[in-house]
Q: What sequence folds into this?
C-alpha cells in the first residue's frame, strides 16, 4: 500500500471518527457547541486537504462578494432613482413658481361689500368688519395663487359697505377708478362678493376638485352697461375655461339690469364665490382654483 493511499485512509478514518463524536455530542449540545462542531469539521478538512479547503473558502467568499456587490449595485441604483425623482420634483416646483413683476400688475381685486362673511362667522347677519372669514380672506388666497403663477395682483381691502350699505357702489367706484389710474397695466378687474343663501336656494353648493370640497361661483353681468357684449363674452370665456379645467366648476352667469360699475373695464367681473352657508375653507378652495382658471385665460390672451 502506497504512502499516499495510507495517508488518505488515515484522513478518512479521522474525519469519520470526528464526525461520529460530534454527532453524539450534538444531541445534547447547546447551539454554541453545534456551531463549534461545524467549525471544527472545516478545520479538519483544511488540515488534511488544504487545497480543497481553500477552494471551498474561495468559493464561499466569492459568493459573499458577489452578493455584496449586487446589494451595493442595487443600493446605488435606488439612490440614483431617488435623486432623479427629487430633482424632477424640484424642477416641477420651479416651473410652477414664476417670478412676479409687482410694478406692472395685471389684476386688481377689490370688494364693494367688503364685510361679507362665511360660516362660522355669522355675526351681524354675516357681515364682519374683521378680515378673517370674509371675502377679503378669499381675495388673499386668489392673490397668493396668482402670484405663484407669475401674475402680479393689487388686492384692495378698503371697507366700502360701512357705515352706509346703500352707498357701497359709490364708494367702491372711487376706489377702483383711483387704482386703475395708478396701475394702467391692470386689465383684469374683479369685484369679489359672496352670494346670499336666500337667493341661492339656502344651500352652500359645492363641487369636488382634486379631492377638495370647493364652493361654486357665479358671474353677474350688468345689462345696462355700454360694454355689455364685451363683459358677457369675457364672463362666458372664464366660465367655460373653469368647466374645461375642472368638471362641474363652470360658474353660472346671471344677468341683471344694474351696471355694478362694470363699465370701467371690458374685462371686469362681478364674482360671487359661495354664499353665507358655505364654510370659509370651501370658498378659500374656490379662490385657489378660480385663480388658476383666470391665469389660463390671461396666458391665452397675451
A:
Amino acid at each position: 500500500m502506497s504512502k499516499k493511499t495510507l495517508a488518505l485512509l488515515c484522513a478518512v478514518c479521522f474525519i469519520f471518527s470526528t464526525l461520529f463524536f460530534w454527532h453524539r455530542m450534538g444531541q445534547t449540545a447547546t447551539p454554541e457547541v453545534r456551531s463549534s462542531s461545524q467549525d471544527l469539521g472545516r478545520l479538519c478538512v483544511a488540515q488534511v486537504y488544504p487545497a480543497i479547503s481553500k477552494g471551498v473558502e474561495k468559493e464561499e467568499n466569492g459568493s459573499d462578494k458577489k452578493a455584496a456587490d449586487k446589494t451595493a449595485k442595487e443600493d446605488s441604483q435606488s439612490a440614483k432613482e431617488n435623486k432623479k425623482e427629487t430633482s424632477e420634483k424640484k424642477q416641477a416646483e420651479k416651473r410652477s413658481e414664476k417670478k412676479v413683476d409687482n410694478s406692472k400688475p395685471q389684476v386688481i381685486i377689490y370688494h364693494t361689500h367688503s364685510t361679507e362673511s362665511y360660516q362660522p362667522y355669522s355675526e351681524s347677519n354675516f357681515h364682519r368688519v374683521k378680515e378673517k372669514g370674509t371675502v377679503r380672506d378669499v381675495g388673499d388666497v386668489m392673490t397668493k395663487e396668482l402670484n405663484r403663477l407669475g401674475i402680479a395682483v393689487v388686492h384692495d381691502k378698503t371697507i366700502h359697505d360701512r357705515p352706509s350699505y346703500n352707498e357701497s357702489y359709490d364708494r367702491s367706484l372711487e376706489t377702483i377708478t383711483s387704482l386703475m389710474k395708478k396701475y394702467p397695466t391692470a386689465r383684469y378687474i374683479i369685484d369679489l362678493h359672496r352670494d346670499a343663501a336666500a337667493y341661492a336656494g339656502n344651500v352652500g353648493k359645492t363641487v369636488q376638485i382634486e379631492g377638495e370640497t370647493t364652493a361654486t361661483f357665479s358671474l353677474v353681468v350688468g345689462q345696462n352697461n355700454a360694454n355689455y357684449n364685451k363683459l358677457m363674452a369675457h364672463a362666458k370665456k372664464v366660465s367655460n375655461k373653469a368647466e374645461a379645467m375642472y368638471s362641474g366648476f363652470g360658474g353660472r352667469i346671471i344677468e341683471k339690469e344694474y351696471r355694478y360699475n362694470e363699465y370701467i373695464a371690458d374685462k371686469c367681473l362681478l364674482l360671487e364665490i359661495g354664499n353665507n352657508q358655505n364654510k370659509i375653507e370651501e370658498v378659500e378652495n374656490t379662490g385657489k382654483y378660480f385663480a388658476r382658471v383666470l391665469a389660463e385665460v390671461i396666458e391665452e390672451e397675451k
